[in-house]
């Protein structure tokens, strides 16, 4: 029997697990992926010459406004695992290119954005490759059932999942009366109202560095909304590389397109937008069905002390600055604060 089970090793789940484990007892984290960090994802691309490229194909960077996030980010800069990537983002629209230097740092760890999750995961009991398929309430504890037949039991359960993935796990509990008339019933209704924009992302390793001089560019008026020069985040000698992200409308229209078609279309769009050819050595496409919350749940998180059940994520509103990596961290930390204060 575990004290705590956390389903989902994204940033919010890891932030919760670190804090709760320090004061609330041992925490075990389960995730369906092979690694941690959720959408703060870095793809490693092995090249024929033996070099490796690292491309952030989910979250683009992370920002820090809250004092605790600033301390984490700046502490990482001093320790060497984090770095300020850029202090301004260019915009390319129908009126031309606009370059803003707003001085606000955008952080990007030199070894990839997934480093942030790996730092939070240090020392935690994490089990990857665990696909959770159902939950059950048994007396005073929770049972978590996995696709491979494993069953995990815990006194308290935290879910760090996109709302559309959380609902199929909790709806049967509502039908079975396990959640009816509980503090979780209203929070579950709020989760039903959460909406997401999807995004296709393409990572491309190039044969030569592009002439485009801006490390981070937002685009309007075409299929792309983001172009990043990934090699500008990395140590010297990293192969030239791009990450492209499509806007939500284009993604919805091509949601089930083959990855190779998405690569070709978005690379062609990038060549047209940037005004240069982009010959590639390797490329991949990744579809994020739940990329960016467009309608979020109120408050920083949810905790039901009577049931020992809670959830957190960037689809909550822990501050006024929108859904991003910092929002996920703040949500996880807020949930840990709630549960440990009640113990």
The top level CATH class name of the largest domain = Alpha Beta
Question: Care to count the β-strands?
Answer: 19
Strand content: 25-35%
Which second-level CATH architecture of the largest domain applies? Alpha-Beta Complex
Structure description:
With 343 residues, the chain is of the alpha/beta class. The chain has two domains: 1-34 and 128-194 and 297-343, FAD/NAD(P)-binding domain, CATH 3.50.50.60; 41-113 and 196-295, Alpha-Beta Complex (Polyamine Oxidase, Chain A, domain 2), CATH 3.90.660.10. It has eight helices and 19 strands. Strands 1, 2, 9, 10, 11, 12, 18 and 19 form an eight-stranded mixed sheet that branches. It has a seven-stranded mixed sheet with strand order 7-6-14-15-16-13-17. The protein has a two-stranded antiparallel sheet with strand order 3-4. Helix 1 (11-23) links the parallel strand 1 (2-7) and strand 2 (27-30). Helix 1 (11-23) runs parallel beside helix 3, helix 1 runs parallel beside helix 8 (325-341) and helix 4 crosses helix 5 (183-192). It is globular. The two termini are 18 Å apart. The model has no long low-confidence stretch (mean pLDDT 96).
Task: Summarize this structure as a short list of keywords or feature phrases.
single chain, 343 residues, alpha/beta, FAD/NAD(P)-binding domain, Polyamine Oxidase, Chain A, domain 2, 2 domains, eight-stranded mixed sheet, seven-stranded mixed sheet, 8 helices, 19 strands, 28% helix
């Amino acid at each position: 029997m575990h004290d705590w089970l956390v389903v989902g090793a994204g940033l919010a789940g890891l932030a919760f697990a670190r804090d709760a484990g320090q004061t609330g007892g041992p925490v075990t984290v389960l995730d369906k992926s092979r690694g941690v960090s959720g959408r703060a994802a870095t793809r490693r691309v092995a090249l024929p010459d033996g070099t490796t490229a690292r491309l952030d194909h989910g979250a683009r960077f992370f920002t820090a406004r809250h004092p605790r996030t600033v301390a984490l980010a700046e502490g990482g800069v001093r320790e060497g695992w984090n770095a300020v990537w850029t202090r301004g983002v260019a915009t390319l629209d129908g009126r031309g290119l606009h370059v803003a230097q707003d001085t606000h740092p955008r952080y990007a760890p030199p070894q990839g954005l997934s480093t942030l999750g790996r730092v939070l995961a240090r020392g935690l009991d994490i089990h990857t490759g665990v696909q959770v398929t159902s939950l059950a309430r048994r007396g005073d504890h929770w049972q978590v059932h996995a696709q491979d037949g494993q069953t995990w039991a815990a006194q308290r359960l935290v879910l760090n999942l996109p709302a559309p993935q959380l609902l199929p796990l909790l709806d049967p509990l509502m039908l079975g009366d396990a959640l009816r008339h509980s503090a979780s019933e209203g929070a579950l209704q709020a989760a039903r109202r959460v909406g997401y924009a999807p995004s296709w992302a393409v990572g491309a390793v190039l044969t030569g560095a592009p002439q485009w001089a801006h490390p981070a560019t937002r685009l309007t008026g075409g299929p792309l909304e983001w172009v990043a020069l990934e090699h500008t985040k990395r140590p010297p000698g990293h192969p030239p590389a791009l990450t492209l992200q499509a806007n939500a409308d284009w993604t919805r229209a091509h949601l089930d397109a083959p990855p190779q078609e998405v690569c070709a279309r978005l690379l062609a769009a990038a060549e047209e937008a940037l005004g240069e050819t982009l010959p590639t050595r390797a490329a991949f496409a990744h579809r994020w069905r739940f990329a960016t919350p467009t309608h979020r749940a109120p408050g920083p998180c949810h905790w039901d002390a009577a049931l020992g059940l809670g959830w957190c994520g960037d689809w909550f509103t822990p501050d006024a600055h929108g859904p991003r990596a910092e929002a996920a961290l703040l949500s996880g930390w807020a949930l840990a604060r709630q549960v440990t204060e009640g113990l």
